[in-house]
Design a protein that fits this description.
about 300 residues, elongated, four-stranded antiparallel beta sheet, alpha+beta, seven-stranded antiparallel beta sheet, Jelly Rolls, single chain, Arc Repressor Mutant, subunit A, 2 domains, 11 strands
């Protein structure tokens, strides 16, 4: 297949770097020739429902780009390395980064993309650990879909603020990639699966669970190992995550009229309401009494 050389627009006004092998697409276009002086500029973006014969081969690209697979399967050759495409997989490329994308005929790709440029474009990709030529995975696999949908909706608006709004959403997307990042494959996969299982158990039983030791015992692991897993994938300990769930539940209960602080403390596993109040303030920044007066 021939290489697609990037151009700005064809006669119909659609950028020539888009593949024609798309059954359905929802795209937006901002300035396809943005000023190089801008710190960050979103050029275009969208979502594409690819045909079974989808294939695109490029030796370069005029902008930086993030692509994200929402559904389907395919194969990617990026910067000379081959990768499997599946739900939750994302990748980045840019100028002078060859990339070849082939969809599955039995499970066609549905993928989002955003193209951007500017002085800080490369810095943004490096900050979310997705420099051009790299592949990543997010968990859950649909973690990025709402932000991409919001980006597309904002890009399709007619208002004057859509340019700045799209830049802000791109920066939010980069932060979300860091927060939702999961191992692609290999030695970290088993560790991440353990982290997911422990996190799920805490979410399902946070009212009953009280200590890190109890969590570790029920998950058949030692305290230190669980702390290492959570700091690697969640930037907090399992106990900190447990307390956050308890205090969020407590905050919701305290919004109900007539509910006593002592009663809520007992519900989330605190026999001493004064200890509960100290933890509540440490986690949420306000005492339970102050929080209730804000209703």
């Amino acid at each position: 297949m021939k290489l697609i050389k990037p151009a700005i627009r064809n006669k119909s006004g659609v950028p020539e770097f888009f593949s024609p092998q798309v059954a359905e697409a929802r795209r937006f276009y901002l300035n396809l020739n943005p000023s190089r002086q801008r710190r960050l500029a979103v050029v275009c973006g969208g979502v594409e429902h690819c045909r079974p014969d989808y294939a695109i081969h490029r030796c370069t690209f005029p902008f930086y780009s993030i692509e994200y697979v929402a559904r389907g399967q395919g194969e990617l050759k990026l910067a000379g390395r081959s990768h499997v495409l599946q739900s939750g997989r994302l990748f980045a490329y840019g100028p002078r980064v060859p990339h070849h994308i082939v969809g599955s005929s039995s499970d066609p790709l549905v993928k989002y993309f955003v193209d951007f440029t500017g002085r800080s474009a490369l810095k943004l990709l490096r900050a979310c650990r997705l420099p051009p030529g790299q592949v990543a995975q997010v968990f859950p696999p649909n973690a990025l879909s709402p932000l991409f949908d919001e980006l597309i909706q904002s890009g399709l608006q007619v208002g004057r603020q859509r340019v700045d709004l799209c830049v802000g959403l791109l920066e939010c997307l980069a932060l979300k990639i860091v927060a939702a990042r999961a191992p692609v494959a290999g030695v970290e996969t088993l560790a991440f699966e353990t982290y997911q299982q422990v996190r799920l158990r805490i979410e399902q039983h946070f009212l009953r669970l009280r200590t890190l030791a109890q969590i570790a015992e029920e998950c058949h692991a030692n305290n230190a190992y669980l702390c290492r897993l959570f700091r690697r994938y969640d930037q907090q300990t399992p106990y900190q995550y447990l307390l956050r769930l308890k205090m969020n539940h407590a905050a919701a209960r305290l919004q109900s009229a007539g509910v006593l602080v002592k009663q809520v403390a007992e519900e989330v596993g605190f026999a001493d309401p004064f200890h509960f109040s100290r933890v509540f303030k440490h986690v949420l920044g306000l005492s339970p009494d102050t929080f209730r007066r804000m209703r």
